[in-house]
Amino acid sequence: MKNKEIKILLSAPRGFCAGVERAIEIVKKSIKKYGAPVYVRHEIVHNKYVVDSLKAIGAIFIEELEEIKDKTRPVIFSAHGVPKAIPLQATKYKMEYIDATCPLVSKVHREAENLYKAGYHIILIGHNNHPEVIGTMGQLPEGAIDLIQDEHDVEAYELDQNKKIGYTTQTTLSIDDTQNIIKALKKKFPEIKAPFKEDICYATTNRQTAVKNIAKQCDMFFVLGSRNSSNSVRLVEVAEQAGCAHAELIHSESEIPFEQLLNCKTIGISSGASAPEILVEDFINKLKNKFQIKIEEVEIIKENIVFKVPSKLN
Ligand code: SF4
User: Which tens digit of pLDDT belongs to each residue from 97-109?
Assistant: First the structure.
């Protein structure tokens, strides 16, 4: 194996986005300010490595506020956003809370609220049960938002003729699949109101475009990220749709397919917005132990977006 040469096309940008950096910083700064433990509702971002490293410094992850034994401790809401009922519940419990919702998810929340106030019925394009979708739907009373997951849902969707409709989307969807759903929606409802600015976020867009740019040249493509990370799973799909015959997610329990790599000249690597760069480095080091590796980074755009943490933590 050791004589086998493999070229790695390293997709860039990849890994942490500004929303993830901010959410992790919020947990670290909260522990510094309030001491440990600090509760976090849901995985702060969908990555086991990140969650484990925050647990090690005093974060306790829970799914619902009821689970918190000591309600004198603060609680942080994850980057995916929460339904409106959750901060209200924290207030009822007299708990201090810090909201780590990504500002780009909050933007979608405000959009949905504005549409609702203007008398629109809202269609949310997204994945059922994803926490971001639960959070967005929970910004408005039940029945104000309908979820559409694919073009079949559009076909089957029926609307009261007198209603105006508008749509918003989850921030981490596949750009191409979403465009097809939007096309189908516009065909069925020509008057449908589109968001003022695209809801799929800059980080999702850049990571997918970068993968698309190199996938066709790769015999295999690897995306570092967790199984419950929507944007990581989408990158695997994008690599395959863009012409790579074999793309796979490398998560905490994955085995590296060394035998299959023996048949590869060029492979691609990227990582989801919640995956730290150390996971990419570890993966490449494991490949270096077996093969002669050449790395070429292919960057399509420089990212310089930074989101500030809430001022009360500074
Ligand atoms: S992927 Fe996009 S929406 Fe999600 S945290 Fe990152 S910047 Fe925010």
Answer: 999 999 999 999 9
Q: Quick check: is 303 catalytic? A: no
| Rounded-to-integer distance, Cα 188 and Cα 158, Å | 10
CB within 8 A of 53, min separation 6: which ones?
A: none
CA atoms within 13 A on the CB side of 71: 11
Ligand 1 pocket mutation, candidates 201, 228, 271, 309, criterion most atoms within 8 A of CB: 201
- Which helix (H) or strand (E) is 187 found in, with range? helix 175-188
- The predicted model scores a pTM of 0.96
Amino acid at 244: C
At residue 1, the pLDDT reads 73
- Token output for 262: 């023996």
- For residue 148, the tally of other CB atoms under 10 A from its CB is 20
Q: Looking at residue 260, what is its pLDDT?
A: 97
| Angstrom distance (rounded) from CA 271 to CA 47 | 11
Among 14, 109, 171, residue to substitute to test ligand 1 (most atoms within 8 Å of Cβ): 171
Query: Measuring CA to CA, how many Å separate 82 from each of 4, 79, 184, 280?
Result: 49, 9, 29, 30
pLDDT in tens, 55-72: 999 999 999 999 999 999
